[in-house]
Amino acid sequence: MFSKILIANRGEIALRIQRACREMGIKTVAVHSTADADAMHVRLADEAVCIGPPSSRDSYLNVAAILSAATITGAEAIHPGYGFLSENAEFAETVEEHGLAFIGPTAQHIRMMGDKITAKTTMRELGVPLVPGSDGALPDLQSAREVAERVGYPVLIKAAAGGGGRGMKVAKTADEIEEAWTVARTEARAAFGNDEVYLEKYLNRPRHIELQILGDAHGNVVHFGERDCSLQRRHQKLLEEAGSPALTDAEREEIGRTSTEALARMGYRNAGTLEFLYQDGQFCFIEMNTRLQVEHPVTEMVCSVDLVREQIRIAAGEKLGYTQKDIKMSGHAIECRINAENPATFAPSPGTVNVFHAPGGLGVRMDSALYAGYRIPPYYDSMIAKLIVHAPTRQEAIARMQRALDECVVDGVQTVIPLHRKILADPSFQKGDYTIHWLENFVAEQTKS
Ligand code: ADP
């Protein structure tokens, strides 16, 4: 096992990884920008190294500075967290070339899944069901028109290098395809320097359901059930649940089997998430994330597993040591992402948190790097906390989350807590009756009234 790990991230996820390390008796090295000198992840680490100025490009994305920090401190492995360098294949490669372990999949698998066209082709070959669409990149507008006619409108033009919902455009009818094609390619070129696009049928009322997978370096692959992440705004998830209120045990078992068999054939190692759109009892693969996800705690709560500990053990070459039948889901978990944003306009609300009180009690978990007096820097993501609850049933989990949100005090900045309260009180949410479009409509209704 490693004796020291460098965590190439900040905020709650850096703390989350530190916690697993500490319980495993592993020393931690934090890296930080000058804007984060007072951050909790720096204060709680065994060692900390400043790696550059506030801008992420010069600090948290600065590969040379991060590798130097690992070398000077004698770290043996790097955990990338999520975001930043977590899905950067060259980074994973460089880490290993420097004789350190990258706590994640191989660079080859990161690269393969980072290109969504290659990801889809690979998954199709491995027997995973896909959204109907083009068989790869679209060479020209004419072929986009042909595929759209074949699968039927509405359709979605998506960037091969896409992420964060960018480079994605809907064409409701044939009249809109030329514009969608042009806008998606322009956006993709600007955001990713790659204007390759593909086409998918646009599903009108799917749920976003994703499967948590772990594979070791010895060919064992298991899944930990699903998360329902349908509640999204501008393709950004806001509230997640495990399990999905829509899935039956038989459906979970079947998609779980298909997915784990596919990843075992790929020789996939470490944590990964297969994202699906689910409509009318059908699963359609859309992409795979080759890293730990923000919403991983809901899975941890229902499966009683520490996914970060498992990632570290796998990276150190250990065997999983259990099989699919040992993994049981128990009760229901919900996560609310608490962003420092105006709850109606979603404009970021950086500033100083004067008063902070974290909720507690049975089945409540708060993953956050906040403290009273903390100044939220304007340079990074606006998520300041994740509030997670676990209870025997979904209904009890909702009541517990409402109670926990009432206890939570974050004073000095605006947060989306009021919006979470409204969502949890809504009858359709309470019935579990929602799709990926539900939240946008809900927010629009709120601003009207
Ligand atoms: P990104 O990597 O940019 O997040 P994804 O492919 O994961 O892109 O899609 C993000 C979100 O966009 C999905 O969670 C879903 O809400 C929506 N979406 C993607 N593909 C489709 C589709 N074919 N039909 C309807 N909605 C889609």
Automatic annotation (TrEMBL):
EC numbers for this chain: 6.3.4.14
Biotin carboxylation domain ranges (all copies): 1-444
Pathway noted in the entry: Lipid metabolism; malonyl-CoA biosynthesis; malonyl-CoA from acetyl-CoA: step 1/1
Entry-linked InterPro entries: ACC_Biotin_Carboxylase, Acetyl_CoA_COase_biotin_COase, ATP-grasp, ATP_grasp_subdomain_1, BC-like_N, Biotin_carboxylation_dom, Biotin_COase_C, CPAse_ATP-bd
Pfam families: Biotin_carb_C (PF02785), Biotin_carb_N (PF00289), CPSase_L_D2 (PF02786)
The organism's place on the tree of life at top rank: Bacteria
Leader peptide range in chain numbering: none
Protein name: Biotin carboxylase
